[in-house]
Amino acid sequence: MFDFPKHESDKYFEAGFNISIAKSISDYIGGKINTKSDDVSALGTSTPPCAPHVCGERVAPYAPLDANFSFRSQLTALQSKLLKAVLTYFGIGWLLVPNMMLRAGTAALFIIFFLIIAWRSTILFCGWVIAETQTSPAVLSAQDKDLPIYSILVPAYREHDLMPQIARAMRALDWPAHRLDILILLEEDDAETIAAAETAAFPDGTRICRVPRIGPRTKPNALNYGLTLAKGEFVTVYDVEDLPAPNQLRHAYSTFSRSNPNVVCLQAALIGDNARRNWLSAQWALEYDIQFRLLLPGLSLYQMPLPLGGTSNHFRGLM
User: Fold this and answer.
1) Within-domain flag for 306
2) Nearest partner of 250 among 143, 157, 169, judged by Cα
3) Is residue 238 part of a domain?
4) Can you say how many angstroms the Cα of residue 106 is from the centroid of all Cα atoms in its chain?
5) What Cα–Cα distance (Å) separates residue 3 from each residue in 232, 238, 241, 282?
6) Is 303 left (phi over 0), alpha (psi -120 to 50) or beta?
7) How many degrees, rounded to 5, is the angle at CA 109 between CA 108 and CA 114?
8) Chain segment 165-198, per-residue pLDDT in tens
9) Which DSSP category does 9 fall into?
10) Domain count within the chain
11) What pTM value is reported for the model?
């Protein structure tokens, strides 16, 4: 399970929000996804379940991303030619001089693995230095009326038994209910999960969104659809098994407020709640602790490409 701690603590965020993206995310989007609305009444208890129509206009099933930053077109012509050339030369060499190719391949792999280990060790050391010297900043105090609308996307498929748990987690969030825009993204033919979501005690204004049967039933597909409906200035993604710390949204908002405008994405650390159950779960917890406490801060220090997990990512500037 990718669970957050159930109890609030600053230590959960000392290295959790460490991801920065140097280029504004607006550069990656080919146009407005949705008109930002300050109409808080639209988030009230009368908000109906989502449909493929919003405000009388057809909603695109996908966010209009720039094709240059999408894999929809798959390999480019140049990439395809290079891949074919490498495979051709490797195949010919293996047929003509197999022993030499085996030795050359072994040596090349050894060098690659050595460089990866050396690079990763350096990054982990930098992350350790950051963890030892950096302190967790206090959460900025702000009145509820001054807080922005925060959209929360929760995709799920055939997970009816977890609806009560995620509903409790959403109610526990320390954020004014009238400034929350919670979207539960469910496949339109997943009747059991839809029924469970409709009976779960979600905060007022939560929208149960039925994702149209367009393309594969995947989490990215559901999030692309949900993004076209989000109304918030800030957006985050949770899985149904997540238990976010109640003050996580305020931590994210405070970190954004202190950061440069070019920081458009933050990621909270994932902490397993079953680390002491057995050896395998302990290894999983150790791997994720190294990932979030050491590796990601080290990568962020040098403005290197950063891997995002599939949950608890916070974005601003999407709308």
Assistant:
1) yes
2) 143
3) yes
4) 37
5) 24, 10, 6, 14
6) left
7) 100
8) 999 999 999 999 899 999 999 999 899 999 999 9
9) -
10) 1
11) 0.71
